[in-house]
Amino acid sequence: MSLNPLDLFSNAVRAKEIVTVLVRHGFGDLLEQLGMPRGWIKRLIPEDAQHLNLWQRIRVVLEDLGPTFVKFGQILSTRPDVLPEPLIAELKLLRSKVKAVPFEQIRPILLTELKEPIETHFSSFDEEPVACGSIGQVYRATLKNGGDPVAVKVQRPNLKKPIKADIEIIGWLARLLHEKVEELRPYDLPDIVSETGKGMMQELDFTIECRNAQFFTALNPDEEHVFAPRVYDEYTTEKLSVCEWVVGVSPGDPSITPEEGKELARIGGQSIFQQIVISGFFHADPHGGNILITEDRRICFIDWGLAGQLTRPMRYFLADLFAAIASSDPEKVVRVINVMAVGKDRLDETKLEKEISFVLRKYQNKFGKSEPVGEIVLELLYVFGVNGVTLARDYSLLAKAIVSIEESGLDLDPNFDIRIIARPYLKKLAYERWNPLNLLKQNWWGLQGHFARLRELPGEIQRFFRKLEDGDIYIKLKHEGFEPLLNSFDSGVNRLSFSMIIAALLIGSSYIISGTIQAGTVSGRYLIHIATVGFIGAGVLGAWLLFDIIRHGRHKKK
Fold first, then answer.
1. Contact 491, 483 (CB under 8 A)
2. Quick one: how far is CA 349 from the chain centroid?
3. In a designed cystine with 55, which of 90, 137, 417, 543 is the match (CB 3.0 to 4.6 A)?
4. Over 50: is that where the pLDDT of 49 sits?
5. How many CA atoms lie within 13 Å of 323's alpha carbon, on the beta-carbon side?
6. pTM of this prediction?
7. How far apart are CA 236 and CA 252, in angstroms?
8. What residues have CB less than 8 Å from 311, skipping those under 6 apart?
9. What is d(CA 432, CA 426) in angstroms, rounded to the nearest whole number?
């Protein structure tokens, strides 16, 4: 998003708050690089005396700037492919310090979205929120029809405009940093901020989260053990969602026995790899806060605001990448990522291979043992990103999902190993990929198209020779890049023509004056006037020609 001067003026108060917080936490030197007068700002706003490192100070700044910036940081924590690992670790610690909005302010939004009084749809509605976030508040209620207990999520009032303003200011600062701080250019901050801002604006639409939960339910093959809360479509709007109320405990709850924990960890890991490898649609943040263990020991994935999606080629690429990592072959890793890299920039493959080799050596003999798989993939994604390899964002979401489920699995079972869970699913993916029957099915439509073109080929050849015989074949040549040369040539010819006209006027006028003086006739006065007009015309044309030459010269310099 761009921030024009008028927007900056209208957001001046907020911009001042941001600058104040940045200076207070020791980022005055950064503002100085952006061309801001650090001296007088520093005198007005003393730096905080906290002894924190750079990454910690960034986290504190985001927390001080409020819910929008905290949410922005939380979303950025899902981008380990483009941000350094210490920063990602700090961003994961961000927690929204959001005070509950009084129900008197929530009620108008609820009535607007329901289009009827609350009592029409709910037999009971607890006005005290059970959860508060930067975007919405969750209330417990009971539906009038059926008596089902439900969780009602309502968007906080007057949210879109301030969030949009904050995102615009963040984008403006990111562009300044990208232009003026050379050390930050490899991270491409404007692109990261733009993509993150779009994701944050999407989270303002609750229908997306509800559709994700429903899509998972449709694809889920193990509803007996794993599920998502039921969504009540009739109440779902951009600012309101109503879902099944699920009673459960977090994975680390002491009421779960070791035997139950081991079984639940296995079921949760299998579900995530089923989602990633087989379905291609997965919960991107299955940490302990987004998992509930019900009384009958089922696993419920909640908060579907962040989900990833992998196409068939992306899933095949993932299998190749895991195989290359497991074999500790940096050259193979480079070949694999070259296939799926987005963009046309030529890579320094030698440098990239060296850095991948360093990471693989670091984790050598650990990939098949105790080292978390997600951490290895996250570190490699970061190496890819800083070397100009742009992969789809879903890959970083995938790595985050693996890291989260590993952490949740270890809470349930200290001996949990995601590799044991992953192997049968990767084998199943390999079978799907290389099974001859599946290959035939995948290529059937393409083969049909080729057969159709082969049937049409004899007729196309016959039509071509008929046109050739009738003289209806034309060859059209188009020269690319000749337009500037032709324009320069035309401009040069025009200037030459003007120069000849000016020269003719000067010579002709001079000749008339010279002949008139020599003849000394009475009519010479009129000829002198004509010669004067010729001189003036030559002067005007000469001045215009000089101005045109200078003007085009300046354009070329720019």
1. no
2. 25
3. 90
4. no
5. 14
6. 0.68
7. 32
8. 280
9. 10
